[in-house]
Specification:
single chain; alpha+beta; Alpha-Beta Plaits; 3 strands; 34% helix; globular
Length: 98
């Protein structure tokens, strides 16, 4: 009997950027397209598929398919760290972004 490949897990994740900060850098229309492109590329780099990516000024919504061997907590931690570092590199004036 042939085994089918492990199915990917579809995940809807919210609130990658918690609001409880004394000064919050918001995701504006100036940064949003580039940030979403970067996050989508990071998901692809982890072997996932970004199905939908949008959000509000203070958080991001993701609908992604992830490989079953990737822990959701690890994926979200890596996405947040990489996106934050990228924003600081590309937009140096946004040091408050996290």
């Amino acid at each position: 009997m042939l085994e089918s490949p492990s199915p990917a897990h579809a995940v809807h994740a919210l609130d990658l950027m918690p609001v409880a900060r004394p000064f919050l850098v918001l995701i504006t229309s100036e940064y949003e397209p580039q940030l979403y492109d970067y996050i989508g590329g990071t998901v692809r780099g982890m072997g996932g598929i970004s199905l939908e990516l949008n959000g509000m000024e203070d958080h991001v919504h993701l609908l992604v398919k992830l490989r079953p061997e990737r822990a959701l907590s690890d994926v979200l931690r890596e996405l947040k760290a990489n996106a934050t570092g990228w924003m600081h590199d590309v937009f140096p004036s946004l040091k408050g972004f996290s």
